[in-house]
């Protein structure tokens, strides 16, 4: 007999990009619409959230846009983060520090090159219980044989080294995409967790090569890598959990046109498509649909609620269950900011975000 209803206590998204300005106005309320009670918010704004006060005021601005959602803040690992700043942030309720290796993804120009200089910061984080969130890729460098396909595997020695030096520091390897990463996290101690996105449970290389809508960092890898991600979720391993890495970009940045970039020459010479996949507004039904597709619906609660909440020490509030019912529902073609509804789709300034799997059917919806 197949199940027609599934309930999960207070789903939480442990890695989400909620942006600023009009984009934020559009998508911050989508966290709740997508079935999440809690959002752990990434700091790669422009400029980045690089100290305690900025993180606290960013969280306040999100709370004003979506008062029913619990937002937890992070800061961007960089020179402003001293041990004192960590202690100040901890006292303001900021929960983590995100590290981006330089140049590997959206707004990572101020990312880090070497971890050793941050050891005093990691020590203060260990003391205050703050979490280190790692974007686990090294920058591409053809002279060293590094490209987007092996950038994650080549990063894992950094994770192992930091964990060995700071065994009590909670570390999350974010958005793992490879069998190598899954095996590495399995091997390490209880203080090391790992987020897995729903889109990486579905995509492989062929799905993004030539298709900007499925392009994100780290890129989806081989069928065997995807199998490893599915296996660890199907197993319900307690240190693997949902971080959607939902990362909206305006359609004009995903599919730039010569007109939006300036000249045809500039367009061809310099313009790439933005990295990031948008899932916030459809997240819980998407997770249920994808987990069921590989026989893991019975691990939905572990994936979207129990495991991440246990790792971060944020138990689900009483009476906070969300119920899904089996029903076919079509994913919208796009989400458009109300101020931009009158503009034509060709207008490059129109703020519209096309979600993952736009136009496809999900098999679950929020009851
Ligand atoms: C993210 C973004 O757009 O902010 N993009 C992405 O492809 N995942 C940045 C990130 O988390 O790497
Ligand atoms: Zn991200």
TrEMBL record:
Task: Provide the alphabetized UniProt keywords.
Answer: Hydrolase, Metal-binding, Pyrimidine biosynthesis, Zinc
Where's the Amidohydrolase-related domain?
A: 73-176
Gene3D superfamilies with a match to the protein in the record: Metal-dependent hydrolases
- NCBIfam families recorded: pyrC_dimer
> GO molecular function terms here?
dihydroorotase activity; metal ion binding
The protein in question is named: dihydroorotase
- Give the UniProt record's GO annotations in the biological process aspect: 'de novo' pyrimidine nucleobase biosynthetic process; pyrimidine nucleotide biosynthetic process
Give the similarity note. Answer: Belongs to the metallo-dependent hydrolases superfamily. DHOase family. Class II DHOase subfamily.
* A GO-annotated cellular component: cytoplasm
Give its E.C. classification number.
3.5.2.3
Species of provenance: Malassezia cuniculi
Pathway field: Pyrimidine metabolism; UMP biosynthesis via de novo pathway; (S)-dihydroorotate from bicarbonate: step 3/3
Class of enzymatic activity (EC top level):
hydrolase
Q: Which domain of life is it from?
A: Eukaryota
């Amino acid at each position: 007999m197949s199940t027609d209803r599934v309930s999960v206590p207070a789903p939480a998204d442990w890695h989400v990009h909620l942006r600023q300005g009009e984009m934020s106005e559009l998508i911050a309320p989508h966290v709740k619409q997508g079935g999440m009670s809690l959002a752990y918010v990434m700091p790669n704004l422009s400029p980045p959230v690089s100290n305690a006060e900025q993180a606290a005021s960013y969280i306040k601005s999100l709370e004003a846009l979506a008062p029913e959602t619990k937002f937890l803040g992070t800061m961007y690992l960089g020179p402003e983060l001293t041990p004192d700043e960590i202690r100040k942030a901890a006292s303001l309720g900021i929960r983590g520090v995100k590290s981006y290796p330089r140049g590997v993804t959206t707004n990572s120009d101020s990312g880090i090159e070497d971890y050793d200089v941050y050891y005093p910061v990691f020590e203060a984080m260990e003391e205050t219980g703050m979490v280190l969130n790692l974007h686990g890729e090294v920058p591409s460098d053809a002279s060293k044989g590094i490209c987007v396909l092996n950038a994650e595997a080549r990063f894992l020695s950094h994770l192992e080294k930091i964990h060995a030096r700071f065994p009590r520091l909670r570390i999350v390897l974010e958005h793992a995409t490879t069998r190598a990463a899954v095996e590495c996290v399995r091997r390490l101690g209880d203080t090391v967790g790992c987020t897995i996105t729903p889109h990486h449970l579905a995509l492989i290389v062929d799905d993004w090569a030539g298709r900007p809508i499925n392009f994100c960092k780290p890129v989806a890898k081989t069928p065997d890598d995807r199998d490893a991600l599915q296996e660890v979720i199907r197993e319900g391993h307690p240190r693997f959990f949902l971080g959607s890495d939902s990362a909206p970009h305006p359609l004009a940045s995903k599919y730039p046109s010569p007109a939006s970039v300036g000249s045809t020459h500039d367009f061809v010479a310099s313009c790439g498509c933005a990295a990031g996949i948008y899932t916030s507004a459809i997240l819980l039904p998407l997770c249920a649909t994808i987990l069921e597709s590989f026989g893991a619906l019975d691990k939905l609660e572990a994936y979207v609620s129990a495991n991440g909440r246990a790792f971060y020490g944020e138990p689900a509030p009483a009476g906070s269950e969300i119920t899904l019912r089996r029903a076919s529902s079509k994913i919208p073609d796009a989400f458009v900011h109300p101020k931009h509804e009158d503009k034509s789709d060709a207008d490059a300034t129109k703020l519209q975000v096309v979600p993952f799997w736009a136009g496809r059917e999900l098999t679950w919806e929020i009851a």
